[in-house]
Each structure stands twice: as structure tokens, then as C-alpha cells.
Amino acid sequence: MNLPFFIYKKLKNSTDKSNTSSRIIKIAKFSVFIGIFISLSAVSIGKGLQSSINETIYNITPDISISSYENNDRGIASEIIKESEVIVDEVNRLYPDIKLNFTLEKPSIITVNNSIETLIFRGVKDGLNFKSFDQFIIEKLNDVPQSLNDVLISKSLLEKLKINVGDNIRLFFQTNNYQKIPNIRNYRVYGVYQTDFPDFDSNYIIGNINSLQNLFKLSSKDFGAIELIVDDKQSITSIKNNLLSKDIFINNNISLLNVQEKYKNIFDWISIFDFNILIILVLMIVVAIISIIISMLTLIFERIKMIGILSSLGGDNKLLGKVFLYQGIDILIRGIIPGNVLFIIISYMQNNYKILGLNPNDYYVDSVPFLIDITYIISINLFFIIIGTIILFATFSSITRFVPTININS
Question: Of 32, 93, 245, 315, which one has the greatest count of Cβ atoms within 10 A?
Fold first, then answer.
């Protein structure tokens, strides 16, 4: 018979529910429960925000943009790149697996229902057929062929201008600095997108690059920017630096801007999440540890007479330690399992029903994202168990200080 486990079961099934240790143990279980739930939630939300913001940035912004210095300084790819064919050949020679996009951006004015908005027309070579942007399209014309004059407009602009999908809009362009009467072009709203990036949503209309090339009397090989899409995001900086060292980029007034540079403030901001997560984890673990220590010491002092009797009967510290080890494991299990269950339920409900919303102007997402990763879930649980077990063994060492005769007489 497992004597330590038998004694632990007797203590656990004690009918005296009013004793101090019973209440302290309940508090300890609740502390572990809250600690594991908040720790899992903090990591999940922090990593979820990082992942969602990163994914949005990488899908609306090229990993590396090759353009003129004027374009990158102004943030608009309106000036034509010289020797674009030579640049494309050089990039393809060095990195044949990298995908290239070709864009041209021009400022314009839109007037609808007596509303006037300045915006940027982003012309894309493949028209509206670019897969990386599909996830942001929330509505579009179904079973209708696309035309040269179809555009995507953001939800915020759609609501501000009070128009619908399928409506026609009128855009005004200035093709030269001396032009007094702007060029007018009519476009059809083919679809609506929403990225939750206010600077992008409030400024960009996306259409076919051929429309701009025809309007500004450019050839089909005239682009404002050559955009590189890199599969391995960790290699973006090294690829950029390697390209910058080539003569074609040095001698042709060409600038290379990567996504980390363009959105440096955002990347710096989300990197702070890791430190915040660490602080929360440490605090939750400390609270749980203190609760376990207090509950164990309370239980030991409440059972001091029992310890004395067992010691006088030949029970060694190993036997006594196992009794309280079982109690400590019970506290950990009864706190960790419900904490994990609640975390999974809350995560599922939030990711599917978006109960907790966020302001996209501040967080670049419209709801709190939970990133479910089995690796960090197991890691946090194991960390709690290992730390809890170490603390339990450290606490049990206090048992060896008791003198049996004093314990019996106390």
C-alpha cells in the first residue's frame, strides 16, 4: 500500500471543511487557475496581435520597393523608374525565385454627392487579380467580368462617399504642372476592401496600371516602383543590402526601401509586446508560487501534531514529503486543467465571434486575436508544473526542522 498517498487521501477527504488550510488551499488552486489562464491569454493575445499586424503589413506593402529617391521620400510611386528593364533583369539574375510586382501611383481627387476627397490611385500591373490582397476584400461584383476601369475602394471611403459596389465614380488627375483643367476618368467600383490600416484605407484606390499609363501617355514598361515579394521574411534586409551594392542601383538614382523601414514605428511598437508578455508571466508565476507556499506551510503547521506522531513512529522526511507533495500536485492540477479549458473556450469564442473589439485606428485590428499555438501552450504548462514542483520540494525541506516530541506536545 502507498502509505503517503493513503494519508494524503485521508487528509483530503477530511470532513472538517472549516479549517484554515482548507480555505487557503482553495485560494491556492484559484491562484494557479488565474495564473495559468492569464499567462496563456497574455501570450496568445500578444502573439496574435503581432501575427495579425505583421500579416497585414506584409500583404499591403512590398517586402522591398525599388523606386526613385523622390518616390520613396514622398511615399508615392509616381515618378517613372529609369532603365526598369535592366533592373528587372538584374533582380531576376540574382534572385530568380523572388516574385516581382509593378506599380504606378498618382494623386487624384474624387467627387461624389458633393463630397471631395484627395487620394492616391494605385495602379497594379495584374489589375485586381493579386492573391495577397484577397483576404482584405469584403465585397465585390459577382459573375461580372473585370474591365480596365474597375477599381477597389476601401470600406471607410465607400461609407464616407455614400456609394455602393457597382456604382460609377469620377476621378480627376493632373497630368502636368501647367494643366489648368484636370483630366477626368470614370471608374466602376468593382469591390470593397478593409485592411484596418487607417493610413492605407483612407488614401488608396486600387486599379489597373494600364489605366494610368494610358492617361499619362506612358509605355507599358513604365513603372513607378518594382516591388519584391520575399518568401523568407528574415532575409529581406540581406537581400536589400546585396542589391544596393550593385552598380545598376548605385549609378541610376535608385532607392530601395524595405517594409521594416517603411513601418519602423509599428514594428518597434509590436516588439514591445514580448517584454510586456514576460512581465505578465513573471507576475502570474510569482502570485501562484506565493499562494502554493502559503498553503503548504499552513497545511504543515496545521498538521504539526500528525507530523510529530508519524516521525516518532519511524516516518522519515521522505514519507512526510510525499504526503505534502501529493497535496501540492493536487493544487497544481486543479488549477492548471480548468485554466486551460477556460482559455480554449474563450479563444474559440473570440476568434469565431469577435466578442472583444478593438479600435483599428489604435491597434490595426478590429478585434482581439488569440493565436493558438500548441508549442507555447505546452511550454507554459510545463513551466508552471516545473516551477511549482521545485517550490514544493523547497517547502518540504521545512519539515525536517520539526522535532517529533515538540510536534506531539504542541
Answer: 32
Residue pair 99/228 in contact (Cβ under 8 Å)? The answer is yes
150-197 confidence digits (pLDDT tens): 999 999 999 988 899 999 999 999 998 888 889 999 999 999 999 999
The residue from 216, 244, 262 where one domain ends is 262
First-to-last C-alpha distance (Å) of the chain: 30
Structural domain containing residue 160: 63-262
Cell of 366: 478590429
Q: In the listed set 222, 246, 262, which residue is the last one of a domain according to the structure?
A: 262
Instruction: Return the half-sphere exposure (C-beta side, CA atoms, 13 A cut-off) of residue 240.
Output: 25
Give the tens place of pLDDT for each residue, 115-133.
788 999 999 987 665 667 8
Decide: helix, strand or coil at residue 152.
strand
Q: Same domain, yes or no, for 172 and 275?
A: no
> Angle of helix 374-396 relative to helix 20-60, nearest 10 degrees?
150
Closest of 19, 6, 18, 25 to residue 294, by C-alpha: 25
Residue-level length of the chain: 410
C-alpha grid cell for residue 69?
Answer: 529617391
Do 241 and 116 share a structural domain? yes
CA distances (Å), origin 395, targets 70, 115, 144, 299, 386: 67, 72, 72, 11, 14
* Residue matched to cell numbers 498553503: 295
Helices 264-302 and 20-60 meet at what angle, rounded to 10? 170
How many domains is the chain built from?
2
Pairing of strands 99-112, 150-154: unpaired
- Whether residue 310 sits in one domain with residue 196: no
124: left (phi over 0), alpha (psi -120 to 50) or beta: beta
Same domain flag for 402 and 366: yes
Same domain assignment for residues 250 and 373: no
| pLDDT confidence tier of residue 315, bands split at 50, 70 and 90 | low
Q: Which one-letter amino acid corresponds to residue 147?
A: S
Instruction: Identify which of 321, 338, 299 has the alpha carbon closest to the alpha carbon of residue 392.
Output: 321
| 130 and 10 belong to one structural domain | no
The grid cell for 214 is 494610358
Q: Are residues 341 and 353 in the same domain?
A: yes
Give which of 66, 8, 1 is closest to 322, Cα–Cα: 8
On whether both 17 and 125 belong to a single domain, the answer is: no
